[in-house]
Design brief:
Blueprint lengths: L9 H11 L5 H18 L5 H14 L4 E11 L2 E13 L2 E6 L6 H14 L3 E6 L6 E6 L1
Parallel strand pairs: 3-4
Antiparallel strand pairs: 1-2, 2-3, 4-5
Helix pairs in contact: 2-3
Length: 142
């Protein structure tokens, strides 16, 4: 289900968003998406992914929000740890956040977030794309 909101204030949009659906980590997801919207509004599209990550990290620090950047997740198989692991761009308040900066998102990026959720045992992920005229994001609940 998609929503298009034309609202006068951040507080009004928060109220509509929080009432729109029931899912885990709703308030925390809203806060992360809000940060990403501010970053996109100021920087726009067209920069490298690493720039958006650096600015998001700066915003998280300013807001004193707990996070881990490039969080490593090891993969266990039949009691052994495999040599290759996954690195999520961010884990913010127990939410996987994967950042992209490209025109369109591929199916493999959705799979990437789903894999991160599976190996991390976390339940919520966000895929955020800064590469288009408007910020695009997809929420995953695992």
């Amino acid at each position: 289900m998609e929503f298009e909101f034309k609202l006068d204030s951040f507080e009004e949009s928060e109220e509509v968003y929080l009432k729109s659906e029931n899912f885990p980590m709703k308030k925390e997801s809203f806060e992360i998406i809000g940060i990403c919207m501010v970053v996109h509004r100021i920087l726009g599209k067209g920069l490298l992914e690493i720039v958006y990550k650096d600015v998001i990290e700066h915003e998280l620090r300013l807001k004193n929000i707990s996070y881990e950047r490039e969080k490593q997740f090891k993969v266990e198989y039949k009691g052994i740890i495999l040599p290759h692991c996954f690195y999520a761009d961010f884990v913010i308040n127990n939410i996987i956040v994967e950042i992209k900066a490209q025109n369109g998102v591929e199916d493999e990026h959705y799979g990437q977030v789903i894999n991160y959720l599976a190996v991390s045992k976390l339940s919520v992920g966000l895929l955020v794309n800064f590469g288009e005229n408007f910020l695009k994001f997809k929420r995953f609940v695992f």
